[in-house]
Amino acid sequence: MEIVSLKLVVIVAEAVLEHQLVSDLNRLGARGHTLVRAEGEGQRGMRVGGLEGGNIRLETIVSGEVADKIMTRLASRYFENYAIIAYQSDVGVVRGNKYV
Amino acid sequence: MEIVSLKLVVIVAEAVLEHQLVSDLNRLGARGHTLVRAEGEGQRGMRVGGLEGGNIRLETIVSGEVADKIMTRLASRYFENYAIIAYQSDVGVVRGNKYV
Amino acid sequence: MEIVSLKLVVIVAEAVLEHQLVSDLNRLGARGHTLVRAEGEGQRGMRVGGLEGGNIRLETIVSGEVADKIMTRLASRYFENYAIIAYQSDVGVVRGNKYV
Amino acid sequence: METLELIRLNLLSPMVLAFVLGILATLVRSDLTIPPAMYTALSIYLLLAIGLKGGAALAQTPLTEFWRPALATLLLGSAIPLWSYVVLRRIGKIDIANAAALAAHYGSVSAVTFIATQAFLNGAGVTFEGYTPTLVALLEVPAIIIALLIAHLNLPNEQEPEENSLRRALHEILSGKSILLLLGGVVIGLLSGPAGLELVAPLFVEPFEGALTLFLLELGMVASRRFGDVRKAGFFLLGFGIVMPVLHGVIGVFLGYVTGMSAGGSTILGVLAASASYIAAPAAVRLALPQASPSLYLTASLAITFPFNLIVGIPLYYAVAQRIFGG
Amino acid sequence: METLELIRLNLLSPMVLAFVLGILATLVRSDLTIPPAMYTALSIYLLLAIGLKGGAALAQTPLTEFWRPALATLLLGSAIPLWSYVVLRRIGKIDIANAAALAAHYGSVSAVTFIATQAFLNGAGVTFEGYTPTLVALLEVPAIIIALLIAHLNLPNEQEPEENSLRRALHEILSGKSILLLLGGVVIGLLSGPAGLELVAPLFVEPFEGALTLFLLELGMVASRRFGDVRKAGFFLLGFGIVMPVLHGVIGVFLGYVTGMSAGGSTILGVLAASASYIAAPAAVRLALPQASPSLYLTASLAITFPFNLIVGIPLYYAVAQRIFGG
Amino acid sequence: METLELIRLNLLSPMVLAFVLGILATLVRSDLTIPPAMYTALSIYLLLAIGLKGGAALAQTPLTEFWRPALATLLLGSAIPLWSYVVLRRIGKIDIANAAALAAHYGSVSAVTFIATQAFLNGAGVTFEGYTPTLVALLEVPAIIIALLIAHLNLPNEQEPEENSLRRALHEILSGKSILLLLGGVVIGLLSGPAGLELVAPLFVEPFEGALTLFLLELGMVASRRFGDVRKAGFFLLGFGIVMPVLHGVIGVFLGYVTGMSAGGSTILGVLAASASYIAAPAAVRLALPQASPSLYLTASLAITFPFNLIVGIPLYYAVAQRIFGG
Ligand SMILES: Nc1ncnc2c1ncn2[C@@H]1O[C@H](COP(=O)(O)O)[C@@H](O)[C@H]1O
Ligand SMILES: Nc1ncnc2c1ncn2[C@@H]1O[C@H](COP(=O)(O)O)[C@@H](O)[C@H]1O
Ligand SMILES: Nc1ncnc2c1ncn2[C@@H]1O[C@H](COP(=O)(O)O)[C@@H](O)[C@H]1O
Ligand code: NA
Ligand code: NA
Ligand code: NA
């Protein structure tokens, strides 16, 4: 089993951003993503589901380069005004070329 | 994009602990958390939602120091009697000072 | 707090595989798992919940050896024909012997 | 006196009491939570049900009756955001983005307030025009677009939202689920007629008040979580959130009277004008005016104006209608 | 003979059969699952509905009728955990934490068993007092508090739960959603009266038995998943989970008779005494007595006592009431 | 002419219009989404409701009436996958796995198409046999097993699925929730009889058409998302997905006539034969024939055959029944 090292980028953001974030990911080169409905609390207060929509937790596996682009885009476009965080970490996958 | 290295602590626990765990996190210095409803299986049997409440999956980004405190607290207070696991890993974030 | 290093294996797959994947994990030596309902998009198109069932996101903490076995099994059995991805990463846990 | 009696009766309806129970649940920090899926299911149900009933009624309405109130509705939807913006900027000294955001909310409409009014009028045995759900759909959109345009024209360039987020917000408004379900319901009700409605009445007509009761339980909890922000929002916004609805309500009732609606229908037009959006507008504003603060506009709409209308406003506007029609 | 006939009739109701179907679904390892949101929606609905009906009935009850049964209920809620604890410790040789945990469950009450009893009595054409939902709320809390105090007094210091988890457990019990919805429903029913109830009856009254059917389908699946643990729990607990309910049921019926309730009402008081909690008590006990094992108390309450009461107990306690009131 | 009128009437029912609304919602990329929990709740409800009604009716059916149609159903379930497979291989030039997968889907049955037919017949005032839900359960399974066997026999060894995934697929089919709820409902209805059904009718009978309306809204959205794949699937599959249902529908109606069913019952047998599975079959096929492409079989079943049957097929097969029974 040859394990290739890639980046996992995780974004937690208010649900209203779902379509914008997904289209940003696609545009910047992500080949897929996984989305989970979430709740949370941070600087912008408590966020639960229902009327206020809660949060989404988006994760995508990408090359280091694409990960950088995503982080840059998020910082410039969303960090100031939206409830959102993002982090990246190293992961190992099998079919390396599936993600780049 | 300056990436700062921090700790991600993930806790999976029976849902009844939700409020206690969140207030522990806050008290120990976490500046936010993200929560997802989960199912699971471990030593204490299968846990699904509905009447029995299932599990929650809590994640929080913190400094290494706070991560240690959280792990210590979980071990002393919950590990013995509750269905719960916790793990930590290294992640990179952009706005380092948001989390500490 | 002594932190032991182990592998976290995350599998995102179409929901119909739930029982098969869980029994594979158990057979290969995983001592537990956590499951979350998810949506996603990849090579095999968009996957949302409802009639089509969406995805599941399974995570399990295991030894490096078991992680290898799981990756090998997934690659040989599921990667070709199913909507599925898997990745692994290093995590630190407290009760190391709980997971192996 | 009569108005007080109407308020008392309204307050003692299961729907309004459930709203109060929701508030209490949050105050005592109960573990009661309405699952998001249940909230969504209820809102789909309520919107579709309202549309269906309206459509079936519309099937029996001559078009000549309809165009005047429709025009009045569009007029309200265009005028309210304009003067609200001016009041917020001049008197409230609120910045451009937040003033535009609030104007969008008060110019648009709250479907649930409308639904509660229907239940109130039904309870009081007052009839109203069947096309009123169509008015809701007409009132929802224009104010949001106008308010976003105001922001667009007044904001300095570097603060302006990205082009494509404006487009996205517009798409969000026009294809949003509240409009889709309302209008979709109206068309289904229109095409399948009273016979079609009868077929689905055991789900979409009879249990309606009960479903509204459950929905208001959740709304009470949501509103209550925002009560803390009312203090932060300040006295001006508290006043704005009560005075403007009363003003809009009276204007709405009057316009209903002028355009030939019944007392019940005029009450509804008053409520529509008085109510502030908290579904369509927040979603669009969040995308197109991210610098505006939800803890201002959501708090005003959800924690001030909605409870006020639900408890005091609805019977009040009806009392106004009685006065106007009576004399 | 008559009792057997009652059991047969009860067993053949759609509600009980749905419970059996749920058991079967788990046994054949079907992929049927009730989504958690649906479970929660049903439980909110059932609790609120029961409260509403009870409240509307209470609006027509003189208080003089109510206080004796209320007192009897409080008596039951205080006495049952005490003697249950003693039995569990002395005869069952069960450790302090688990004995206290079980005492909390059997002293408290199962709302669904109560609801099923209402359906049973309605089906049999037997009337009962409208204030019975209030008794459920009264019975839910005291036993849990008493049992936790017993544990507190008897456990060696180092095994005692943290102070703050006791406080949290107490808060959990008093602001828990079952009490909130039950009492909230009662107050809404009381304030809005029969007219208010009529407004929401198509949702909260008529489809009630159907909703209970769906809920019992889920409960059957949950109970069935615990059947494997019954063997592990041992013979004593199996006996305890059947004998104590019968004992409590008879005492409850008798207390109902003595305090002036009708035969139907006495049956209900019997069922309340006989039933074991599996919502409020487990949550509180889990927080305050973490060392107690859910596979003992939940198994006893959910996989032994609940099915027993649902299938045999309810008709049995009614037969007892008939006997007492008959002669 | 009469057939066209029937199609028109069918098309203007709230149920079919809701399906169209769902299609529209996807086309305008609305943010409307039915939460998965709501979808699951509705499907549990519909299946159980159908079973309950069927069972209560079966309680009054002599067995002698039932065995002929049951046999005809099993015959259909065995023959349709065989000839469908041949057509797909020979005329369609489709590979073994995909041909077998499609054969499984068209040989099995769509419960919702059945449910919509009941609503259609009820609307038209046509009666039908109460045991028809049992026929649905009978028809669901055999075709899937036969088609998987065909694949098993024809696929080269290295392409064959693992032993244990075949076993798992079989288990999935037999314990699948659609069969469990349908048959479970039938048994509950049978045992609790008309009196039991009456008890739960306000939930399981009266709001049925309304619930179906909501369900078809979701199905419209799902089908619509697959319309893009229809082009990829090609002309042959489009033709297959329309011609085969008509053929099967006519055969089904005829077999109903021959085995002594009423015109309504024969229409239902026609619809059952004509409909293609999209719940049980996809799940089983996905596990046992992973190399078959869901974008062929799901698209054919969900985006071609289901809308065709819902809008044109149901009234068409009824018109055929009228013709056969009329002359
Ligand atoms: N330190 C943190 N760890 C994990 N999740 C966080 C953290 N801070 C914020 N979040 C998540 O990100 C969302 C937005 O954060 P904020 O913009 O700080 O309100 C919150 O609702 C949480 O779900
Ligand atoms: N090895 C594991 N990997 C991932 N999740 C686990 C593992 N073990 C336990 N869990 C999760 O933690 C919960 C509690 O674990 P336990 O206390 O072992 O029953 C389980 O229900 C699972 O959701
Ligand atoms: N690059 C990716 N990052 C994160 N999740 C992915 C990625 N690619 C695929 N997925 C997830 O895995 C599922 C199956 O992927 P696929 O087989 O490529 O369709 C998708 O529905 C996504 O949920
Ligand atoms: Na307005
Ligand atoms: Na009890
Ligand atoms: Na078929």
Write down the secondary-structure element order of chain D: HHHHHHHHHHHHHHH
Number of helices of chain D: 15
Tell me which ligands are bound.
adenosine monophosphate, sodium ion
Strand content of chain A: 35-45%
Return the string of H and E elements of chain A: EHEEEHE
Structural class of chain D: mainly alpha
Q: Which secondary-structure class do the elements of chain A indicate? A: alpha+beta
Uncertain parts of chain A: none
- Major sheet attributes of chain A: 5 strands, antiparallel
Q: How much helicity do the residues of chain A have?
A: 25-40%
**Overall 3D form of chain A:** elongated
- Main pleated sheet of chain D: none
The proportion of residues in beta strands of chain D is under 5%
Over all CA atoms, what is the radius of gyration of chain D? 19 Å
What general form of chain D does the structure show?
A: globular
N-end to C-end Cα span of chain A: 19 Å
Mean pLDDT of chain D, rounded to whole units?
92
- Rounded to the nearest angstrom, the radius of gyration of chain A is 14 Å
Can you count the helices of chain A?
2
Account of the protein in words:
The complex is a heterohexamer, with 3 copies of chain A (100 residues) and 3 copies of chain D (327 residues). Helix content of chain A is 25%, strand content 42%. Chain A contains 2 helices and 5 strands; from the N terminus they run E-H-E-E-E-H-E. Chain A has helices spanning 18-28, 64-77, and strands at 4-14, 33-42, 45-47, 55-62, 84-93. Chain A has a 5-stranded antiparallel β-sheet, covered by helices on one side. In chain A, strand 2 (33-42) and strand 3 form a beta hairpin. The longest helix of chain D has 33 residues, at 294-326. Chain D starts with a helix and ends with a helix. The mean pLDDT of chain D is 92. Chains in contact: A-B, A-C, A-D, B-C, B-E, C-F, D-E, D-F, E-F. The D-E interface holds D 12-14, 17-18, 21, 24-25, 28-38, 41, 119, 123, 202, 206-207, 209-211, 213-214, 217 and E 35-38, 40-41, 44-45, 48, 52, 171-172, 174-177, 180-181, 184, 187-189, 191-193, 196-197, 199-204, 207, 283. The structure holds adenosine monophosphate (AMP) (3 copies) and sodium ion (3 copies). The site of one sodium ion has 8 residues of chain D, from helix 5.
